[in-house]
Amino acid sequence: MAVALDTAIKFGAGRVRAEQGLIAQLGEEMARFGKKMFIVAGPRSWDAVKEQLEPSMKAAGVEWELEIYTGWCCYEGAEELAAKAHAAGCDEIVGVGGGKIMDFAKAVGEVAKLGTINIPTSASTCAPFTCMSVMYTVEGGKKTSWRFDHEIDAVYMDYDVIAACPHRYNAAGILDAMAKKIEMLNGRPEMKLDDNPIDVFTAYNMAAYVYDVLAERGQQAIEDNRAGVYTKTLGDVAFLNVITTGVIANTTKSFRQSELAHVIYDGVRTHFTHEAADAIHGEIVGVGLFCQLYFNGLKEAEEELRAYMKAMDLPTTLGEIGIEPTEENIATIEEYIVNSRHYNSDDPADRVRLHEAVLEMV
Question: pTM of whole model > 0.70?
């Protein structure tokens, strides 16, 4: 079902709005794309928006079918819901939820050959904005990354909804966004234009900007989030987590912005599906950053990152995300990295360095 890589850069979404009080305006926005929406939502996410979204759709003359979805973003589920969307005569797919639902809505749209609108209810990932979906098995193991040859129709992020979201999700999104700068170095302490394509170097410099702002303002944003109030700082951080980081990912066609920390995430989902079931994407990526920093030759940066994460109640070790750090489990993660496209060295010294890097997560 996956398509060959399209060499065109798709920067994001055709229409993007990020502001307060947005949910109540989305009926008119949806009407731009059709008369009947097929809404795919997580249960808690739908509860967070329905009281304002339903009247807005009714006022705009927009009809809808609602599917509350709790499974993984998988091909089987996408095919089932695409068939339902066609049977209901829907014109557009609408995702309402966190990263998993955002990816799943895009996958449903791709199978159905319909456009997708994403309405994130947390700032936990750039998935609402990226032109790809991370696909899993029905049980939750990582399967593949499905890249699309077109942009998302629209992304609408209501800052009031983000402020009401449990701070754990937005904090994890901060680490997922900060990860891009660290991961793009992958084995080096710095990046130079002469050694990289201009699109990759551009994305890296955007990632460095995002990292710097989040390092300075991320903790305050989470304190505001804990209080359940919107502030400019919280809105700025949410924009960076979702929109700007999504542009970074799309600029590299969702390749070079994710390296060891994300392949560790994939390995955890594949080999420790049940053990780490309660850990969310950015939490696992955050733990993986200690491996990435060491592999980059930047071990001295680990202590500061660990303190930063602890201040936001984020896990910092494998044990804290549910994986017992046994020799067998560590070897499983290491082998998963070695057999991925993210590691391509035959140098025994690099393998020793990778092993030492994996131990930084213990």
Answer: yes
